[in-house]
TrEMBL record:
Keyword terms: Membrane, Transmembrane, Transmembrane helix
Annotated source species: Hirundo rustica rustica
GO cellular component, one term: membrane
Compartment annotation: Membrane
Regions crossing the membrane: 31-51, 164-186, 198-217, 237-260
Membrane topology, record value: Multi-pass membrane protein
Full protein name: Claudin domain-containing protein 1
Length: 276
């Protein structure tokens, strides 16, 4: 009897024993919350990025009186602007004079609805846009815009090409990361979320590079073609959307990687505890 009493575990000792989670335990609420926030940030950044690519307000020019600029001295501005032979200097001068806006794919100017020689000056203006062709995106930029004999400006040439390619690389990386995230949900595992986070981080770098290339390209262009005194230039809301998209991508990447690594670390400690 004494031996049996010695082997009996006191009831109070059960309260001090650690509780071991079962193998099918649910994911910690911290990780689930982090993944939900990361997915929302990723979705918002994708929408912002797509909107910035598809709109024409990356850079805006504001003149005091665009209706007066399109007068008898400038009836052919629109014809020159839409011409296939229009070089960089030609359409940039039109952007200066006619409240122009520039996007990644199109350029727009504001002109009177009726600009015929017999029409009186009008205050009713309309915005007309012309798309950059694929060849325009890869055309060489010259040291002196409009002068084909001045030589190739390599800095502006490659900055222009990068600002065309980087946004598509950024969106492609985020879409691929979303596909990996769906596979992770199907497999009920957080390990692939690390790859999703890395892809979002690379997408953020591409977006940040796009913003830097665009700013550098605009600054170099204005050194070659200074703004007239009555013209004011500023970055538009499409550019701002791209600027906001980059930090959202970085935050989503940080949350994906943190959730995956922390969950994996805790799972490894739990396995070690069970073996012990």
């Amino acid at each position: 009897m004494s031996r049996v009493r010695d082997e009996v575990v006191p009831p109070g000792a059960l309260l001090t024993c650690p509780r071991v989670p079962t193998q099918g335990a649910m994911m910690d609420n911290r990780f689930a919350t982090a993944l939900v926030i990361a997915c929302v940030l990723s979705l918002i950044s994708t929408i912002y990025m797509a909107a910035s690519i598809g709109t024409d307000f990356w850079y805006e020019y504001h003149t005091l009186s665009p209706a007066e600029n399109v007068s008898e001295a400038g009836r052919s501005i629109w014809e020159e602007f839409v011409s296939k032979d229009a070089d960089e200097k030609t359409y940039t001068d039109a952007l200066f004079r006619c409240n122009g806006t520039v996007g990644l794919w199109r350029r727009c100017i504001t002109v009177p609805k009726n600009s015929h020689w017999y029409s009186p000056p009008e205050t009713d203006m309309t915005t007309n846009c012309i798309s950059f062709s694929l060849s325009d995106q890869f055309v060489e930029k010259y040291i002196e815009p409009g002068n084909h004999n001045s030589g190739t400006d390599l800095n502006r040439t490659y900055l222009w090409r990068l600002q065309f390619l980087l946004p598509f690389v950024s969106i492609g990386l985020m879409c691929f990361g979303a596909l990996i995230g769906l596979c992770a949900c199907a497999c009920r595992s957080l390990y692939p979320a690390i790859a999703t986070g890395v892809l979002h981080f690379l997408a953020g770098l591409c977006t940040l590079g796009l913003v830097g290339c665009y700013v550098a390209g605009i600054e170099l262009l204005h050194r070659k073609l200074p703004l007239p005194e009555d013209v004011r230039g500023e970055f538009g809301w499409s550019f701002c959307l791209a600027c906001v998209s980059a930090p959202l991508q970085f935050m989503a990447a940080a949350l994906f990687i943190w959730a995956a690594r922390t969950n994996r670390k805790e799972f490894t400690l739990l396995k070690a505890y069970r073996v012990a």
